[in-house]
Backbone:
C-alpha cells in the first residue's frame, strides 16, 4: 500500500480523448503535397524532409541512431514522428488510451493498478419509461398489487372492499391485454396473471353471495383451454350449487371435477367424494351416500366420514350397518402422539423448558381439538344407535361400551355408562339410574365424582336431602374442585336454612369455575334470604353480563330493585323481560302492579288487560280489573271479569254476588233479581243474598217478598247461633291455655320456638315481609272492591269484608320458575350435558 497514491481530485482521467489533431484530417489529403508525392513513387516511400516545418518537434529533438547520436526526422506533411513527444505536451497516441494510464505517468507518477484514482463512477443511465415494454411491466405490477390487496381485505373481513379490488384488478388486466395487442406482443400475454385475476374475482363474488356472477366467472376460466387444469374449479361451482340447495347440479359438477382429476391426486379425489356423499345425505338418498362414505373409509378413513356413515345407516334402520360403521369409526387413527411426551421425565432443565414451551402451543391445541371432536362424535353416535341396535337400549349401550373398551378410546367407556344412567333418568326409571351410578363408587376419582354429583342431584329432586347431602360430600371428597358437587352441597345446606354456610359453598364453586352460572344464581338467592339485597343485586348483575337476555335473571334484578324502593329501575328491567318474553302473563301483571303503585292507572290497566288476555285465570288480575271498572263506574265491563272469577271459583259466593251487584248498579234490576235467585238456590243460607232479594222484591212489588223475609230471619238467627258458639269456643280455649301457662311455668321454658316454614330454593317467590308495609307508603292509591254502604248494599260491611280479597296480592311468580330451574340444574357440563332439565 506504500506504492499506492491517490489521484488528484481535479485530474480528468479521460482528458485528451476529444482533442483533434489536424494531421489526421483525411479530407485535406488531396492538397497535401508530400502525401501526393509519396503516392506517385514506385514503392510508396515518402522522401526525407529537409526543411523544418512549424508545429513539429524535429528541430528540438534529434533522432537516436546506432552511433549514439540523435538525428531529427520529420514526415513530409509535418506529422510528428512516432515516439516523438513535444515539450510540455502529452505524447499523441491512438484513439484508444490504455486503461490505467494518465498523461503524467511518464513523468514520475505512480501506476494505479486498482483504479483508485478514478473517483466515483458516473450515475447509471435511467430507463426509458415511455417504452411499451416498461409500461406493460408497470401495469402487471399494479394488477398483482390489487390482487394482493383484495386477498388481504377479505382476510380482515372486508368482503365488499375485497370485491371492489378484484373488479379493479380485472379492469386493469383487460387494459394490459389491449396494450399488448396494440404493441404487437399478443403472443407474450401473461396467462398466469389472467388466471389469478379471474379466480380471485370469482372467489370474491362467491364470498359476497353473488352466486350468478361467480358461476359466470368460473365458466370463463373453465372454458379457456389455455389454462392448466381448469377442471378443478368445477368443485367450486359445485359448492355454489350446494349453497343454493341445487343438489342435482352440485353432484353433476362434483362428478365432472372427479373425472378430470387423475388418481395421482388421491387426497383431492377423497374430498370430492366426501362432498358427493354429503349432497346425497341432504337429498335423502342414504344408500348412495353410504356407497360414497364406505369407499372413503376404505381408502382414507377419517372421523367426519365415519360419523356421517353411522348417521346414514341409522336413517335406513340397518342394525348391522350401524354396528359395522361404529366399529369403523372407533378404529380411525387420529395421528396424535402420546401425551406422555408433554410430561417432564428428566431433571434436564433445558429439556423441561422445551416441554413447557410446547405444552400449549398451536400444535398441541390442534391435537386437543381433534381428539375432543373425535370423542364428541363417538359419544353422540353411541347414544344415537344404542337403543336401535338391540332390543333394549341397555343392551345397546353394553355393546357400545364393549366396543369402546377394545379401542383406543377406552377412557370413553365410563362416560358411556354415565350416559346410560342419564337415559334411565329421561325414561323416569330412577331406580335403574341410581343403580347404574352407584357402580362407579369404587372407580377412579374423576368418574366417581361425576357419578356422585348426579346421584346427589337425583336425591335432591326426590327431596331426600340426607342422601343428597351424603353423595354431595362423596363427590367433593373425590374431587374438591368439582363446581357441580359444591353447588349441590350448597343446595342441601340451603334447604336447611343455613344460608351463611350455603353461601360459602357457592363462593367456593365460583372460585373453582368462574363461569359456574348455577353457583352465581344460587348465591344471589342466598343473599336475598340473608336480606343482603345489595350483594344479591351485584350477583345477578354479573350473571346478566354472562347470560344475556335471560328472563329469569332480569326478573330477579327487577324484584331486587323493587325491594330497594327503586320502582323506576324495576319497571325498566321488567320492560327488558317483556322484550324477551312478550307473552308472559306474570310479568305483565307485575308491571301493572308497579304502575298502579306509582299512580299510573292507565298504564296499569293496559298491562293488567294484556296479562288477562294471555292468562285469563289469574284471580288477582281478574279482581283488579273488576274493581277498576267498578271504581270508574263502568259496571257493564266489570261483569265479564266477575263471571270469569265465578267459573274459576264456583264455590265462592262473593263472585256471584259481585255479578249481581254490577247488574243492579247498571240499572238492570230484572237481571240482578234473576242472578240473586240463582245464588239463593245454590247457597240458601247466604244472608247477603237474602237481604238483596228482600230489598229488590220490595221495590219491585213482588209477592215473594214475605217468603224471602222469613228465610232471612231464620238465616240470621242461625248465623247468630253459630257465631256465639265460635266465640264461646275461643273463650274456653283461651282460658285453658292461660291456665296451663299459669300451672306449669317450667314447661314453658322447655317448649322450643315454633318451627318456621322451610323455604325450598325451588320456590323462591322474590318477596319478603317488608313488602306488606311498603305498599302503604307509596303514593299510588290501591283499588279496592266497593264498600257496602251504597244503595242496595248490606248494612254489615264486616261480613262483606270476609268475602273479598285484596286485588293487589302477590303476582310476582316468575322468579319462582327461575330459582327452580337454576338450583335444580346442577349437573356438570362434562357430566351429562345441557339437555336434562327438571322442568
Residues:
Amino acid at each position: 500500500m506504500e506504492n499506492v497514491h491517490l489521484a488528484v481530485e481535479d485530474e480528468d482521467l479521460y482528458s485528451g480523448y476529444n482533442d483533434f489533431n489536424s494531421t489526421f484530417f483525411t479530407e485535406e489529403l488531396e492538397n497535401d503535397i508530400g502525401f501526393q508525392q509519396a503516392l506517385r513513387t514506385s514503392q510508396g516511400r515518402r522522401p526525407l524532409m529537409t526543411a523544418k516545418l512549424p508545429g513539429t518537434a524535429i528541430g528540438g529533438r534529434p533522432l537516436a541512431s546506432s552511433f549514439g547520436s540523435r538525428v531529427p526526422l520529420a514526415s513530409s506533411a509535418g506529422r510528428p514522428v512516432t515516439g516523438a513527444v513535444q515539450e510540455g505536451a502529452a505524447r499523441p497516441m491512438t484513439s484508444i488510451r490504455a486503461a490505467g494510464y494518465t498523461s503524467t505517468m511518464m513523468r514520475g507518477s505512480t501506476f494505479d493498478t486498482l483504479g483508485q484514482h478514478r473517483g466515483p463512477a458516473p450515475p447509471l443511465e435511467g430507463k426509458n419509461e415511455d417504452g411499451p415494454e416498461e409500461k406493460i411491466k408497470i401495469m402487471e405490477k399494479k394488477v398483482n398489487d390489487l390482487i394482493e390487496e383484495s386477498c388481504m381485505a377479505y382476510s380482515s373481513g372486508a368482503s365488499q372492499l375485497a370485491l371492489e379490488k378484484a373488479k379493479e384488478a380485472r379492469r386493469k388486466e383487460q387494459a394490459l391485454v389491449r396494450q399488448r395487442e396494440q404493441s404487437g406482443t399478443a403472443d407474450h400475454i401473461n396467462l398466469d396473471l389472467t388466471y389469478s385475476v379471474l379466480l380471485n374475482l370469482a372467489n370474491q363474488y362467491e364470498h359476497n353471495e353473488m352466486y350468478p356472477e361467480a358461476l359466470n366467472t368460473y365458466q370463463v376460466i373453465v372454458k379457456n383451454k389455455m389454462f392448466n387444469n381448469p377442471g378443478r374449479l368445477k368443485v367450486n361451482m359445485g359448492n355454489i350449487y350446494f349453497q343454493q340447495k341445487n343438489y342435482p347440479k352440485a353432484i353433476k359438477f362434483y362428478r365432472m371435477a372427479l373425472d378430470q382429476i387423475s388418481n395421482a391426486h388421491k387426497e383431492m379425489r377423497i374430498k370430492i367424494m366426501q362432498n358427493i356423499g354429503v349432497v346425497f345425505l341432504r337429498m335423502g338418498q342414504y344408500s348412495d351416500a353410504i356407497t360414497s362414505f364406505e369407499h372413503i373409509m376404505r381408502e382414507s378413513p377419517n372421523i367426519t366420514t365415519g360419523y356421517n356413515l353411522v348417521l346414514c345407516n341409522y336413517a335406513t334402520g340397518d342394525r348391522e350397518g350401524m354396528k359395522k360403521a361404529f366399529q369403523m369409526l372407533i378404529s380411525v387413527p387420529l395421528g396424535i402422539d402420546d401425551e406422555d411426551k408433554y410430561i417432564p421425565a428428566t431433571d434436564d432443565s433445558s429439556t423441561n423448558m422445551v416441554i413447557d414451551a410446547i405444552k400449549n402451543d398451536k400444535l398441541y391445541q390442534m391435537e386437543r381439538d381433534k381428539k375432543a371432536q373425535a370423542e364428541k362424535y363417538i359419544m353422540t353416535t353411541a347414544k344415537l344407535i344404542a337403543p336401535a341396535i338391540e332390543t333394549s337400549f341397555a343392551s345397546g349401550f353394553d355393546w357400545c361400551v364393549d366396543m369402546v373398551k377394545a379401542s383406543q378410546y377406552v377412557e370413553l367407556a365410563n362416560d358411556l355408562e354415565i350416559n346410560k344412567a342419564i337415559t334411565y333418568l329421561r325414561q323416569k326409571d330412577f331406580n335403574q339410574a341410581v343403580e347404574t351410578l352407584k357402580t362407579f363408587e369404587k372407580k377412579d376419582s374423576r368418574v366417581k365424582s361425576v357419578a356422585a354429583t348426579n346421584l346427589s342431584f337425583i336425591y335432591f329432586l326426590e327431596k331426600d336431602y340426607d342422601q343428597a347431602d351424603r353423595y354431595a360430600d362423596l363427590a367433593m371428597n373425590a374431587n374438591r374442585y368439582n363446581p357441580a358437587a359444591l353447588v349441590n352441597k350448597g343446595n342441601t345446606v340451603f334447604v336447611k336454612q343455613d344460608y351463611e354456610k350455603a353461601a360459602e359453598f357457592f363462593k367456593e364453586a365460583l372460585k373453582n369455575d368462574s363461569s359456574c352460572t348455577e353457583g352465581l344464581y344460587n348465591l344471589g338467592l342466598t343473599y336475598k334470604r340473608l336480606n343482603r339485597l345489595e350483594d344479591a343485586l351485584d350477583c345477578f348483575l354479573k350473571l346478566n353480563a354472562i347470560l344475556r337476555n335471560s328472563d329469569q335473571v332480569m326478573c330477579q334484578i327487577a324484584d331486587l330493585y323493587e325491594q330497594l324502593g327503586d320502582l323506576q329501575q324495576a319497571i325498566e328491567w321488567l320492560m327488558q323481560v317483556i322484550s324477551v318474553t312478550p307473552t308472559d302473563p306474570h310479568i305483565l301483571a307485575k308491571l301493572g302492579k308497579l304502575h298502579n303503585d306509582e299512580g299510573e292507572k292507565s298504564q296499569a290497566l293496559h298491562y293488567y288487560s294484556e296479562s288477562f288476555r294471555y292468562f285469563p285465570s289469574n284471580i288477582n288480575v281478574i279482581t283488579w280489573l273488576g274493581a277498576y271498572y267498578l271504581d270508574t263506574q263502568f259496571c257493564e265491563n266489570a261483569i265479564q271479569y266477575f263471571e270469569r272469577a265465578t267459573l274459576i271459583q264456583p264455590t265462592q259466593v262473593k263472585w256471584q254476588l259481585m255479578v249481581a251487584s254490577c247488574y243492579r248498579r247498571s240499572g238492570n234490576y230484572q237481571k240482578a233479581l234473576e242472578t240473586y235467585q240463582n245464588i239463593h238456590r245454590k247457597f240458601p243460607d247466604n244472608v247477603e243474598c237474602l237481604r238483596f232479594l228482600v230489598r229488590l222484591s220490595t221495590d219491585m212489588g213482588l209477592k215473594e217478598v214475605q217468603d224471602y223475609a222469613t228465610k232471612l230471619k231464620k238465616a240470621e238467627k242461625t248465623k247468630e247461633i253459630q257465631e256465639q258458639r265460635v266465640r264461646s269456643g275461643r273463650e274456653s280455649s283461651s282460658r285453658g291455655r292461660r291456665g296451663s301457662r299459669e300451672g306449669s311455668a317450667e314447661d314453658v321454658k322447655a317448649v322450643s320456638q315454633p318451627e318456621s316454614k322451610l323455604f325450598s330454593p325451588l320456590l323462591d317467590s322474590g318477596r319478603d315481609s317488608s313488602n306488606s308495609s311498603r305498599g302503604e307508603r307509596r303514593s299510588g292509591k290501591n283499588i279496592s272492591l266497593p264498600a257496602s254502604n251504597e244503595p242496595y248494599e248490606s248494612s254489615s260491611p264486616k261480613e262483606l269484608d270476609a268475602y273479598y280479597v285484596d286485588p293487589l296480592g302477590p303476582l310476582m311468580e316468575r322468579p319462582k320458575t327461575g330459582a327452580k330451574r337454576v338450583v335444580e340444574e346442577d349437573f356438570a357440563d362434562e357430566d351429562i350435558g345441557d339437555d336434562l332439565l327438571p322442568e
The longest helix spans residues 705-743. The mean pLDDT is 76. The CA atoms of residues 48 and 76 lie 7 Å apart. The radius of gyration is 53 Å.
